[in-house]
Amino acid sequence: MSSYVESLNPAAASLAGREPDFTALLVENQRRVFQIALSVVGDPADAEEIAQEAFLRAHRRLSSLRDPARFRAWVSRISFRLALNRLRARRRRIARESAWQAERPSILSSAAGDPIFLERLRAEIELLPEKLRLVLLLAAVEGMDAREVAAVLEIPVGTVRSRLHAARKRLLEVMKP
Amino acid sequence: MNPCPRRRDSLLDFALDALPHSAAHAVEGHLRQCVPCAAAASDLKLRRRQMDSGLAQLFAAAGPAPGFRARILAAAEASRPASAWQHAWSAALAGVAVLIVAAALVQLPGWRREPAVSAQPPAVSLSDWRAPTDGLLPPRSSELLNSGPRLGDFYFPLDSISTSPSQDIGGNDDES
Fold first, then answer.
1. Per-residue pLDDT tens for A98-116?
2. φ and ψ at A104, to 5 degrees?
3. Of A85, B22, B39, B72, which has the maximum CB count within 10 A?
């Protein structure tokens, strides 16, 4: 009974003084961790590699995590950092090769809705400054609120809100019919 | 028709519901009187709904591939660190091995240290020292060395030489 409760709520494992169930944490967070990586790198294959690496790093240090309730924020931050590193490495490589035509893979390939509108939206998001773009994309990840975005980016919640507003305002201005 | 230029920024904020209550009320008052601004605000509201819908769809269908979880669990299992019990057993086995090696080394003859007790001065002790095998294997040359001539001695006895006249080296000139 207790193991079932802990599998539903990993924080219960800490109350029981045991290491949290990694499988339960993985099931609970895999989609979000993947989407965070995808929001930064834009390529599903890269995002999957990054998410896998983030979970393995978290697994290696799972015993040092005192509060399993923080696992979500922790693994989200790892995923974001890994994705940002990969994005910057890719940009450096592209800059070296002087191949600006090597554009970022579409993150909307599997999205539903008006494909033309979404493609245009993606193009406009790409033109946003990095600070605004990252906040906007992380906020678009399923279930991420401003506080969680702030935790991932390690910036104040107020900064997240102001950047999010600035990004949406700029998008609204340029997305003319 | 274009909206009022000085209202452009506030119309964007109005469409995003980002204006404080009093400012939003003032914009609504203006929209009731200004047709171009009202049309622009209506258009912005529509675009904002499309944009929010599009942003929500960005990652709506995005998820890892089906085998993602199994791959991570397999990799995690492969890199699982040894448990505390395994660490304890390893440490205990290593300790026992060290003790066995130490005991074996102490039992070796060379590792036994006999106390060197000697009342004599070191030089005397050294001159008296004999190898343990000296008594068992006396050298063949020891008799010859012990009976050999010392410095200043002649090897053959001189009296036996002087008895032969032909070999008188000193000569007998005085006698002849």
1. 544 444 544 444 444 677 8
2. -65, 135
3. B72
Query: What is the CATH classification number for the domain harbouring A136?
Result: 1.10.10.10
CA distance readout (Å), B76 to A61, B96, B145, B168: 11, 32, 84, 112
- Stated pTM of the model: 0.61
Indicate the residue among A100, A129, A144 that finishes a domain.
A100
**Residue B91 belongs to some domain of the structure:** no
Q: Examine the domain organization and report whether A125 and A167 are in the same domain.
A: yes
Determine contact: B57 vs chain A, CB below 8 A: yes
Range of the domain at A139: 106-177
- CA–CA distance, B37 with B42 (Å, rounded to integer): 8
- Burial category of B156 from C-beta neighbours within 10 Å (exposed 0-12, middle 13-18, buried 19 and up): exposed
Cβ within 8 Å, pair A56-B12: no
Which of A76, A65, A78 lies closest to A11 in space, CA to CA? A65
The C-alpha atoms of residue B124 and residue A101 are separated, in whole angstroms, by: 97
The CA-based angle B21-B24-B29, given to 5 degrees, is: 125
With CB atoms and an 8 Å threshold, state whether A55 touches B43: no
Residues in chain B with CB shorter than 8 Å from the CB of A48 are: 64-65, 68
Q: Which residues, in sequence order, are CB contacts of A28 under 8 Å at separation 6+?
A: A10, A72
Instruction: State whether B72 and A55 contact (CB < 8 Å).
Output: yes
A177 with A152, same domain: the answer is yes
Domain extent for B14: 5-56
Model confidence pLDDT, tens digit, residues B3-57: 888 888 899 999 999 999 999 999 999 999 999 999 999 999 999 998 888 888 8
